[in-house]
Amino acid sequence: MVKLTGSAIKTEDCKHIILLIVLVALLCSVVYGGFLSGRKFYAYTDVGSDTYNNYWPAYSYFVDVYKTGTFGFWNFEEGLGTSIFTNSDLVFDPFILLFLPFDKTTLPFVLVYAAVLKILLAALFFYIYLSQFSIQPYAKMIGALLYAFNGYMILTGQHYHAATLMVFMPAYLYLYERLALRPTRLVAFMYAVTLAVFLIFCIYYVYFVCLLMPLYILFRWLSSERGTFKDFIIRPALFSCIGAGLGAFLVFPTLYVYLTCPRVSGSLSGANIFSLDSAANYYAVLSRFFSNNAAFSKHLHWYDPALYCGLITLLIVPQIVWHGRIRDRLICGLGFCIVCAALVFPYFRIVMNGFSHTTYRWSFFVILCAIAVGAKALDHLVRTGNVHKKTLAATALVLFSLLAAVILRLNAYGSGRDLLDYGAAGVIIALYCGVFMCMSRAGMMPLLKTLLVLLVAVELAWASYRIVNDRETVSPDSINNRQGYYDYTSDAIAYLRSIDDGFYRVDRSFMSVFLRDSLLHRYMGLQAANSMNHPSYIEFNCAVDVPSLYGTFCYLPGFWSRQNLQTLTGVKYFLAKKGHAVPFGYEYMHTAGDIDIFENRHALPLGFVYDACIDHATFSRLENHQKDEVLLKAFVAEPGTPVPAHVSNVSSEEPTNYLYRKEVPFLPGQFDVAIHGVPEASVDNALPATISIRAFDESPVLDFSTQPISGTPGEAFLNIRMGIECDHAADAVLYWKKPTEEFSSDRSVDVRIKKGWYAYNFGDSVGTLSHFNGAIRLDCSEPHDVRLVIKNVRGNVTVDKLAITARYPRNMLPYVYDTAKLRQGGLKVTTISSDYLQGEIELDSPKLLFLSIPYDEGWKARVNGRRAQTEKVTIGFTGIYLDKGYNLVEMRYVPPWMTAGKIVSIVSIFVLLLVLVFFRKPAQTAAGADYNTHVSSQAL
Questions:
Q1: Residue 932 neighbours by CB under 8 Å, 6+ apart
Q2: C-alpha distances in angstroms, 45 versus 42, 48, 109, 548?
Q3: Where are the alpha helices (DSSP H) in 149-228?
Q4: Pairing mode, strands 859-863 and 612-615
Q5: DSSP tag of 52
Q6: Edge-to-edge strand list for the sheet holding 859-863
Q7: What is the β-pairing status of strands 715-726 and 555-556?
């Protein structure tokens, strides 16, 4: 073979990089064409709904605060308030800079362009990373293409920050390789800075890297032709510490949030290292090696694991066993055993995920290493044409066997579309085998290389298209139809801002999309959807028995049906759709589109004072309605916390139980349901009733009537609960009316029926139900007709567990008295921003100032210019004991550990500069110099 010069190799690199960019662009146009053209938003409403429910509003919020200069370390617009470090993976995502020219209405059009840019950068960085090894440009191009469309990038990357991780990893490893074997000042500086940005962006992923990098270092040292163990350890360790120190000012506060979050917990107590998963789980894991498409999603998380690294990779990696050195064979064998153990035994997954959950989110490292080894194997096959056909045949036979097992399992579940996908995988493997079998033939290599590129491109398009496109996505039509985030909530909030520039919270009888609506619409609400919800808010919810959605602390639905808690936490305005129930004491103000705006005549300010308390043990023994009543009379003292003598005690005997709500059935034991619009339907009238329907593009109408309830005080909340199982997603509308009236949109509730079975609640209690819609308030002393219309149904629909009840409160005069007393001692807020507030209050006696801000060590108080102690009161809120007379109260939020982090970062900057000044390139042997010359000629 003719040895190419350095310039020729560099020219070859340029050609292959251009070809790589073209291929990535073409594949992205195929896979993401519908999103790039604007026909769909790159946000999903199915099991990938985090893109719609969480990331879209979060990016909108942080882009807005960056642009308006209102960025602060505390965010009042999520739940009752939380540290912005709970969203570090979004707020510090470098790609958020791409969104700055856009606003919340145009942002969804550009989300897909950020995704495509990440794919392109991941490909380029991986190509550069492979340049550190003796790999020809062709093999590097194939490897980079596989990496750009691997399972973690395409599947898990639909969690946008996971795709950012896949951009970071090859860049970080490239700099590590350079720092270990060919260090320069620039490389050392870039390594430290890159690691700092990586840590700031998402410390969660860095945890995985810290666990996996020792294995990577060990394998690299064992497989390296040069470099001592010190080269791979000492210098990178030094600059890793410096890089971690550079980012400490933001990393430390994030670390504090992670360590104090109730979700981040767990232990290995009682765990069995050799315990196994179910067979279904193993089949699901196995299927993920063959395609990005989410087979067996009933047994495994839709995104987890993402193991697809290309069928060609699975086929040619075993060639290392034949062509590699004995040392390479041992390394590959050991790596294979480690991966198998991690996939087989849940124990290792628990360790990898910080002892809190059994996930496969660390699988990005498996993909990266597998593709790198595959690129090395491909390089040898293409350069020499020496394919070990027996090994290839044996590998293909094993892959066909495993694929057959997957297909048989799929067939048992009747998933026809998946069967076609995995059948196609077998065909692609066979075509690869045909190409590699012909490589030993003289003169065919140029043609075979071209065929191989085309086959890889076809494979990647096949493996990615369905999981990206055959999904329920958000339609741009929602803009013109005023749906989802484009509804009239923004108009309602704009109206409130025009008439009230003070501090207040807003609650609603409906959701635009989900629990993060407040971030996008920029109002202070009660709901929160965050993996790291504030622990104090969680603690309070648990103490007053407010259930979270889906049984997880990630989703806190607020205090709907708990009016006293709404008022306690400063809800001043209420938004309701036409016909929805409105809590007691709310007065109509204005209408924005289909939303009515009401003002709470009994609203409490952000801060007010108590002169009484109830001890924690007594409070915990009360029933929920008694707790709600007591909280408007006294604060709850923490166990072991001394209470000043001037604070009186409230006993468990004092609640009058005025909040106790009687719940009575609103349907007879047997009832008739009239079903219209479908040819096939059946009804089981015994309560809870079950209704079965089969339709094809019809809109079934279910009519039934309620009976009056004697002895009621008149108006009550109507609760309608049901489960709906649907073969396909559909829209539905629930109507109600008196027998003498007509059904109308003014008395209706819209709901999106999800595919599969979900529980739906139309009423004034959230419970643990999956979907919540606005409450219905009507006169329960009269009969009413109820109608459910499910639009454009396809397939089977089952409505079960149907139950209708009425709930009504008793005398609310004590509520009026208690709130009026608390409002008299309210804090007058004069200045407020995201992490600072100032207010004044005049007291006739010493009292406790209660602030409806979740207790956080970062909030520091000053009263009349002197430092004041903040107290944790009412199981999760902030309190300050104030003296008689005038009090000027200041509160400033400084994230915990940030001061220490700033000191570490400043020291690290000086250390980095000092180290770079005295930095010396290590002496190189002749062999090392030859190696460097060879590798440098291939690097960019």
A1: 181, 182, 924
A2: 10, 6, 16, 20
A3: 151-154, 160-181, 185-201, 203-223
A4: unpaired
A5: I
A6: 828-832, 836-843, 885-893, 859-863, 866-868
A7: unpaired
Strand 571-577 and strand 505-508: the pairing is parallel
Instruction: Count the helix, strand and coil residues of the chain and give each as a percent rounded to the nearest 5.
Output: 45, 20, 35
The two beta strands, 730-737 and 748-753, are antiparallel
Report pLDDT for 807: 64
Of the candidates 298, 310, 289, the one whose C-alpha atom is nearest the C-alpha of residue 405 is 289
Q: What angle do CA 622, 628, 632 make, to 5 degrees?
A: 115
756 by Cβ neighbours in 10 Å (0-12 / 13-18 / 19+) ranks as middle
| Structure token pair of residue 232 | 């791979």
CA nearest neighbour of 808 among 745, 732, 723, 714: 714
Provide block-wise average pLDDT over 10 residues at a time, the chain (940 residues). 44 90 96 93 87 92 92 93 92 92 88 95 96 91 96 88 93 94 92 94 86 88 77 91 96 93 59 71 84 57 78 90 72 83 81 71 90 92 87 92 85 67 89 90 85 95 90 88 92 96 92 92 93 93 88 85 91 87 88 94 96 94 93 94 89 84 56 70 64 75 74 60 82 83 80 80 45 53 80 80 68 89 91 94 95 96 96 96 96 96 96 88 49 34
Nearest-angstrom CA–CA distance, 611 and 614: 11
pTM for this model (two decimals)? 0.85
Q: How far is Cα 916 from Cα 765, in angstroms, rounded to an integer?
A: 62
DSSP 758-823: EEEEESS--TT-SEEE--EEEETTS-EEEEEEEESEEEEEEEEEEEEEEEE----HHHHHHHHHHH
Answer whether 316's CB lies under 8 Å from 305's CB. no
Q: Which helix (H) or strand (E) holds 663?
A: strand 662-665
Task: Please choose, from the candidates 95, 214, 84, 251, the residue with its C-alpha nearest in 3D space to the C-alpha of residue 162.
Answer: 95
Q: How far apart are CA 804 and CA 666, in angstroms?
A: 5
Question: And the tokens for 441?
Answer: 């033939």
Predicted local confidence at residue 709, as pLDDT: 62
The CA distances from residue 138 to 12, 16, 20, 128, 592, in Å, are: 9, 7, 10, 13, 60
What values do phi and psi take at 600, rounded to 5? -80, 110
Rg (alpha carbons) of the chain, rounded to whole number: 31
Phi-psi region of 34 (alpha: psi -120 to 50; beta: other; left: phi over 0): alpha
Positive or negative, the Cα torsion across 847, 851, 854, 859? negative
Q: Where are the alpha helices (DSSP H) in 585-700?
A: 616-620, 624-630
Q: How far apart are CA 167 and CA 98, in angstroms?
A: 15
Q: What is the pLDDT of residue 825?
A: 79
Cα–Cα distance list, 847 to 121, 249, 859 (Å): 59, 37, 20
Q: How many residues does the chain have?
A: 940
Give the rounded distance of the alpha carbon of 813 from its chain centre. Answer: 43
636 and 616 Cβ atoms separated by less than 8 Å: yes
From the list 498, 515, 513, 502, the residue with the least C-alpha distance to 80 is: 515
**Is the bond leading into 305 cis (omega within 30 degrees of zero)?**
yes
The type of residue at 741 is E
pLDDT value, residue 684: 64
Please give the C-alpha separations between residue 235 and each of 200, 222, 502, 829, 886, in angstroms, as whole numbers: 22, 18, 55, 54, 60
Q: Side-chain half-sphere of 610: how many Cα atoms within 13 Å?
A: 28
Look at the block and give the residue holding tokens 């936490």: 569
